Amino acid sequence: MSAARRVVVVGSGMATTRLVEELVARGAGEGVVVLGDEPHAPYNRILLSAVLEGTHPVSALTLREPGWYAEQGVDLRLGARVLGVDRERRDVMLVDGTVVPYDRLVLATGSIPSLPPIRGLVRLDGRLHERVHAFRSLDDCTRLVGALTSLGVPDPCGLVTNRRPSGQMPAVCDQTARATPARAVVVGGGLLGLQVARALSVRGLATEIVEGGEHLLRSQVGSAAGQVLARDLRRLGTTVYTGARAVRLSDLPDGTDGTGGTVGLRLDNGYTLETDLVVLTAGGRPSTALARGAGLEVRRGVVVDEHLASVTDPDVHAIGDCAEHAGRTTGFVAPAWEQAAILAHRLTGGDAVHTGSRTVARLRATGLDVAVLGDPERAAADGGEVVEVTNPVVGSHRKLVVRDGIIVAATLVGDLSRIGLITQYFDRGTRLAGTEPGQLLMGDRTAPPARLAADAEICACAGVSAGRIRACASLDEVRETTRATTGCGGCASAVRELLATRPALSGTT
User: Span 44-59, mean pLDDT?
Assistant: First the structure.
């Protein structure tokens, strides 16, 4: 990419970070402008629930420090909210009046939460009820942790202030300052909802989940897996309401001065849940306001072609959650990183094309293990053969959808011992013998990651193999050179085990 080709990227999330890294690796970082509307350095949104839980300090979320961008010649502007895009003038205007010209524009604006239709959720002045919290950004997480502290929930980990001494493990919050545990209701039983619910439960809150669908994770798994998840959550102390929608939020007297110390969340089945906090994790949509204002074609997301360019304007691209390709949008980090790599290749003169992203979803929540490859429900409905094993007593569900001997989708709940091998077969389209799918589902808890073949995939987000992990000397080197563990974090334990069992270097003792 020549100096005359100025690339401006709107958004500073995980997709943008990967795009910039790929451009820098190709020697094309000089002159790239990144406009992020948040004041924070680019961070890993997927690990926000780990910060809420107390297993990660806020500093662990940072993907790249601002100084790194400066060293690479990248102009990172934080707190730079974009007002509009003028495609005729080929520039971007910020809310402070600054105009930023571009040769190529990349929209990586992500997604925004949508509020469920609950009466009383929003005050007359347009603000959310003070007991209600969205959970999408680092600022949302900070406010929620502050709300927990105000309820008397101990914060020995210094989650937001980052005061925990170096190396000290987080303590479990037992709320000894309260006569009864604080209560929280999480609205939404998707991946984010389950992560938040587990984090709040680990913090010591009595937590309930309200999901309008007939089962949890309805967008990723079938009924059997959803029921196993609900049973697992109940075993972990979280109450689950499915097939019920929250319809009204109202203040309740606190029993002492009538000031409304708690709120009541009424469900459409007639129940009212008394709670201290309501956390919204249900619903989100691609952020497309800028694209619409610029006259680009937008359906659910910004419509792009195989070059990840807008079908309206070839000099405007979109990647990540806000992009729609072949009628589909995605909300996962792996496809966003894949798109970022392809776009970096094209921006630097390559001919890579985007043919569609594989979907690999992992749930990051203490005590819950879930992985979903592809779209199992759609694949089964399209005529795929289903091989399924469910054991609700131990909390496991495993399902493969096979077409002509090839795994086209999979769901694993509670036992991920074979996830590396199944993902490898899924990615490569390996044709299996008649009995192999069933054998795969039997699991093998005695087969550690250290025994995986060198080409077995360990990190689905970044597409990193066991061999690449073994070639690294430390976890820091793994993160820096492969980006493994910096996505959903689901591969962290496997990466650590591979590092611990890697052969000693020749000539060392």
Answer: 91
